[in-house]
Amino acid sequence: MTAVAVPVTLVLPQVIDSYTLTVLAIYAMLALSLGLVWGYGGILCFGQAAFFGLGAYGYAIGALNVGESTIALIAAVAATAAIAAVLGAMMFYGRLGDVYLAIITLVVTLILYRFMSSTAGDAYVLGKARLGGFNGIPGFPTLHVPGNPSAYIWGDALYYVCAASLVLVLALVTLLLRSGFGRVAVGIRENETRMGLLGYDVRARKTLLFTIGAAVAALAGALYANWGEIVTPRLFGLTQSAEIIIWCIVGGFGTRLGPILGAASMGYLKFLLGQQSLVDNTLVMGLILILVVLFLPRGLVPALEGLWIAAWQRMPARQMQRRRRNLA
Questions:
Q1: Which residue pairs, CB below 8 angstroms and at least 24 apart, start in 14-22?
Q2: Residue 22 burial (CB < 10 Å; 0-12/13-18/19+)?
Q3: Could you report the per-residue pLDDT of 19-62, keeping only the tens digit for each?
Q4: Is 72 helix (H, G, I), strand (E, B) or coil?
Q5: Predicted local distance difference test score (pLDDT) of residue 256
Q6: Under a CB-based contact definition with an 8 Å cutoff, are residues 229 and 142 in contact?
Q7: What span, in angstroms and rounded, lies between the C-alpha atoms of 159 and 251?
């Protein structure tokens, strides 16, 4: 899968402009973070938007104070992962049920949205960074070549950085799921009680998986900050949280490719719908979700895989029929 992703990322700029492709790659990474946590760990998290926003704000604040984009990027991902580890430990070691876990992560996202929207004024300043309330933080240094602050990475170069990051994250997620930890995570998703009786520390493994998913979402958020060159509380909005879940459901959250394909296709469709005012894009997104749930409950990628397998299984039967006809 990773080997196919490399030529695809090189060919796509010939079809779609790099500005749009950059945000689609970021959306795909964000959806993959939830696909890992939900699809393979069985943890329905409404807080991926919170980690996405924290990564974006963390990068903006770090870039304004440090000036070195690479350090700001790493610090934003690390700080978000630390917050997620604390939150995850509180939830999983507190033995919360799936419903309560989903509610708490949603509430955390809404709290961050309300807090960041009310940070206008001189009191809300972190070093050289003014949080700016609803207007957000603009004008921070974007990605540049390490050691050369004047060599900014933007345009096609930013797309290739985001695409390479997506391919790298996909490769690391693949290795993680093929490892012993990944197999145990899937086992916990299927039967948490049985895995606990087998001697595995379920709470620690769910906390770690939750933290990894948050780190991936934070990386996507930091790259999004570089793409938009501004961060606002809208990143923590309820609409953002819902869209991530819709991407995973449409693509197929039980696969690695499903969230990526769902995010890229739905994100591009949203971009196309945004160029017209005849049809409300929210209505179209909702209709697509309903149709997928009704007719493709497992998502687009599993459905395509099923058709591919069925087609290959019919091939030998067709060949036998041809041979019988030739003999006749």
A1: 16/268, 18/155, 18/156, 18/158, 18/159, 19/155, 19/159, 20/268, 20/271, 21/159, 21/163, 22/158, 22/159, 22/162, 22/227
A2: buried
A3: 999 999 999 999 999 999 999 999 989 989 999 999 999 999 99
A4: helix
A5: 92
A6: yes
A7: 22
If phi over 0 gives left and psi between -120 and 50 gives alpha, with beta otherwise, what is residue 130?
A: beta
In one-letter notation, the amino acid at residue 248 is C
Helix (H, G, I), strand (E, B) or coil at 46: coil
Contact 107, 47 (CB under 8 A): no
CA nearest 5: which of 158, 246, 172?
Answer: 172
User: Taking a C-beta distance cutoff of 8 angstroms, is the pair 263, 24 a contact?
Assistant: yes
Rounded CA separation 293/136 (Å): 36
Q: What phi and psi, each to the nearest 5 degrees, are found at residue 253?
A: -75, -5
* Domain-wise residue ranges, the chain: 2-235
Q: Are 9 and 167 in contact (CB under 8 A)?
A: yes
CA distance 165 to 144: 15
The structure tokens 């091939």 sit at 315
Is beta strand 137-138 parallel, antiparallel or unpaired with respect to 230-231?
A: antiparallel
User: Which residue is it, tokens 């509430």?
Assistant: 107
**Which three-class secondary structure state does DSSP give residue 311?**
helix
Per-residue pLDDT tens digits for 199-213: 999 999 999 999 999
pLDDT surpasses 50 at 233? yes
Determine the Cα–Cα distance for residues 137 and 19; give it in Å rounded to an integer.
21
206 and 187 in contact (C-beta within 8 Å)? no
Q: Residue 249 is which amino acid?
A: I
Q: How confident is the model at residue 121 (pLDDT cuts 50, 70, 90)?
A: confident
Three-state DSSP state, 199 = coil
Long-range residue pairs from 71-76, CB within 8 A, at least 24 positions apart, any chain: 72/141, 72/222, 73/143, 73/219, 73/222, 76/218, 76/221, 76/222
User: Which two structure tokens, joined as six digits, stand for 176?
Assistant: 């993680």
